[in-house]
Amino acid sequence: MTTRDQILKLSDKLIRDKGFNGFSFHDISKTIGIKTASIHYHFPTKADLGVATVKGHLKSLEEIKKTIANKSPFQKLEAFFSIYVKVKSEKSVCLVGSLATDLNTVDGKVKVELKNLATAILELVTETLEDGKSKGVFHFQIPARTKALMIITNMLGIVQLMRLTGEQDFEAMKGSIVKELKSK
Amino acid sequence: MTTRDQILKLSDKLIRDKGFNGFSFHDISKTIGIKTASIHYHFPTKADLGVATVKGHLKSLEEIKKTIANKSPFQKLEAFFSIYVKVKSEKSVCLVGSLATDLNTVDGKVKVELKNLATAILELVTETLEDGKSKGVFHFQIPARTKALMIITNMLGIVQLMRLTGEQDFEAMKGSIVKELKSK
DNA sequence: GTCTATATTCCGATAGAC
DNA sequence: GTCTATCGGAATATAGAC
Fold first, then answer.
1. Structural domains of chain B, count
2. Which residues contact B32 (CB under 8 A, 6 or more apart)?
3. CB of B52 within 8 Å of any CB in chain A?
4. Which pLDDT tens digits describe chain B residue by residue (184 residues)?
5. Where residue B159 sits, what CATH number does that domain have?
6. pTM of this structure
7. Separation between Cα atoms, residue B146 and residue A82, nearest integer Å
8. Is the CB of B26 under 7 A from strand D?
9. Within a domain: residue B37?
10. Which residues touch strand C (CB under 7 A)?
């Protein structure tokens, strides 16, 4: 893996673990064994690092989208859940939630890219729900966009809350989301 | 209002607006017209300020609990929503969500107090849902605790997301939560 | 209680050698 | 690309006068 990719991977983890204002170039420096000055060669400013990190997630999401294109609605939903299963296993939170709570302190360019990511996630889940409803396997009486927001906020919120209420709440919620979608 | 209360009120707003690591004593200093050194007289460390701020929310929640004790399940739920309606009007996020994403960077005492607050909120909503179900006005097929977590994460998450997806999503979600609770 | 002054540490960022 | 060295600023916190 290139140094640039090592930095990006660690940046992602640190943002989700400590928040954008809770980690420093020194954290990256000590972990991958490179001086802080060298990080600036790859990313001139911390905002540049933030933008690149969010863009990386957007690219990953596009990959997921391609992979599930011809899968069943349930499999599409599981692919979305898998993002948060990974987050849970790392005992951190998701990138969108972490940056959203720091929104008023980050550079405008990060904000723009984060809006792109949030929009892409919302589109993915909304389409998944519409697909499931048209095929008669998902049932809900509210707009697909709103139902998608409910499921997304369930996942985004539970990874934040479960460290305060109990880890078992994650599986309970994931299971209940599917159960409610299946019941007429 | 005492200086101490002024500091606490501003601390709450700043944590929710910029995150715990995104605001400084200087922000408080310049707003209420007091030197940063004076803030330390009231709160020796930033962690002390954090603990007191969370305890303030816990006290407010106890007040709400007393107020709604004999109200209908719908009114109880609206009282819970009202916390987030206020958050929305301030264009910020909720305290639990903001501190949860910074959890690994805050003092242990703040973490303990935040757990107490999250537990109290979960209890309030769970009891509200159980009350509504026993009275036949709310309908859901999953454990009350899980349903409560779903509604809490809906609110916690939508105030974080709506600044990225659109403000209209807040009302849509609030309305849909009630609609789904009412439908058999 | 609030002030001035200061200690200490940390952070993002840049210049220039290698 | 990575390094050493350093700048400038901001942060939390403390000491002591008023």
1. 1
2. B3, B6, B7, B10
3. no
4. 999 999 999 999 999 999 999 999 999 999 999 999 999 999 999 999 999 999 999 999 999 999 999 999 999 999 999 999 999 999 999 999 999 999 999 999 999 999 999 999 999 999 999 999 999 999 999 999 999 999 999 999 999 999 999 999 999 999 999 999 999 8
5. 1.10.357.10
6. 0.98
7. 20
8. yes
9. no
10. A 23-27, 36-37, 40, 44-47; B 3, 33-38, 41-42
